[in-house]
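Structure (tokenized):
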């Protein structure tokens, strides 16, 4: 049975024709390429997915984070020039090889991979971790994959629907009342400069005004100044500026120096919050871990 990292080369081989593939297509082509037996294809992990499919898809995720694969659009994958260059070397693509790329190292850091102080290698062995740490690392990897997918999806949603998503998130976080009259987007009413209104009480005494920018560009200081101008016309100056991109240093300085109470949420923070508060997210499976109840065995 192949391990996920042993699928790096087969994945690149079957995708070297530069065609756009869905993940499932890649898994099927890889299975044929490495000539998996019927027994290997029948093997399942606990969630019910075929083991080889799960491992191929994780191999694709790692290759993407190293820049060897990329997404043409949601769910569509294609090999990159870096992936083609890795194949041209004729050498096995390993985790250590991928670790030469800064973006892959950053990805490994995000998923919470912890090493011993004296461990400077790119590849940490399983023996370095307790079972609990392995579970935590695996869950962090899964969360990061979902966050990456969320970020890709948010880039393609309708701008007005993005405003609704931002409204739903703030309500899920406890900042408003889930009522169309008390928490709503403002496109139809034309409330200049404000995309959503979140009332925290029935009388609207404590109200949050939201600006939602669904574009990849960096938010500039002028964007913040425009938002501040819109807030100045409101009875309360509580604001949240949400973007799928990032904020420039000048934009953050403008927020910090403002007399208003403004919070900035960039694309990375947005995906994390949506996962945390389960906005657009479904729980697929719940796992349990156990400890002995020592008190039960005492007299």
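Design, position by position:
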């Amino acid at each position: 049975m192949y391990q996920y990292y042993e699928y790096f080369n087969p994945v690149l081989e079957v995708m070297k024709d530069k065609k756009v593939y869905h993940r499932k297509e890649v898994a099927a082509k890889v299975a044929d390429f490495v000539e998996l037996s019927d027994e290997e294809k029948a093997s399942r992990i606990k969630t019910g997915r075929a083991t080889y499919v799960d491992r191929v898809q994780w191999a694709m995720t790692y290759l993407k984070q190293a820049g060897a694969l990329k997404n043409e659009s949601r769910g569509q994958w294609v090999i990159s020039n870096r992936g083609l260059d890795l194949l041209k070397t004729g050498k096995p693509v390993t985790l250590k090889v991928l670790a030469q790329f800064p973006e892959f190292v950053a990805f490994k850091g995000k998923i919470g991979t912890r090493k011993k102080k004296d461990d400077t290698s790119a590849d940490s062995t399983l023996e370095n971790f307790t079972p609990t740490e392995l579970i935590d690392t695996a869950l962090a990897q899964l969360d990061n994959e979902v966050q990456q997918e969320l970020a890709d999806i948010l880039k393609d949603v309708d701008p007005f629907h993005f405003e609704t998503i931002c409204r739903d998130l703030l309500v899920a976080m406890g900042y408003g009342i889930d009522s169309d009259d008390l928490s709503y987007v403002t496109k139809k009413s034309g409330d200049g400069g404000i995309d959503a209104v979140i009332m925290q009480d029935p009388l609207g005494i404590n109200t949050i005004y939201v600006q939602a920018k669904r574009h990849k560009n960096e938010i500039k200081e002028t964007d913040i100044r425009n938002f501040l101008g819109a807030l100045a016309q409101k009875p309360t100056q509580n604001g949240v500026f949400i973007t799928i991109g990032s904020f420039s240093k000048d934009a953050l300085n403008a927020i910090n120096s403002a007399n208003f109470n403004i919070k900035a949420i960039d694309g990375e923070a947005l995906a994390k919050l949506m996962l945390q508060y389960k906005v657009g997210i479904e729980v697929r499976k719940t796992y349990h871990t156990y400890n002995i109840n020592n008190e039960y065995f005492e007299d």
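Reviewer-requested clarification: The domain at 159-276 is CATH 3.40.1350.10 (Trna Endonuclease; Chain: A, domain 1). Residues 23 and 139 are 21 Å apart (CA to CA).
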